[in-house]
Specification:
3-stranded antiparallel sheet, 16% strand, globular
């Protein structure tokens, strides 16, 4: 299956934006999406936020040496952008990713 050109352009833009930032593995990024000490996102949850996104916002990534990374700054941008879409509550998609919905 081939990805369409708009998906490819988004991935290229993501890579350019993430370059030069503090890189995180997907497991490390999961720790930043935490509601409390008992509720954290998993690596699979982070992968869903990359592929599917939440409220139209997808987590930016870059592939280096065959391993996908994101960045601390990309996680912060993602959280800001999702919060801007629906500020009064946690969006259902994030609650689902965290296993709370």
């Amino acid at each position: 299956m081939h990805s369409n050109s708009s998906d490819r352009n988004v991935k290229i833009a993501d890579a350019a934006r993430v370059r030069g930032e503090e890189l995180l593995t997907l497991g490390e990024a999961a720790r930043f999406l935490t509601l409390n000490r008992e509720v954290t996102a998993s690596q699979a949850s982070i992968e869903e936020l990359i592929r599917v996104g939440c409220q139209g916002v997808r987590l930016e990534t870059i592939v280096l040496s065959g391993t996908r990374h994101t960045s601390l700054e990309a996680v912060e941008r993602f959280c800001r952008e999702v919060a801007a879409v629906d500020p009064p509550r946690w969006p259902d998609c994030l609650l689902r990713v965290l296993g709370l919905n």
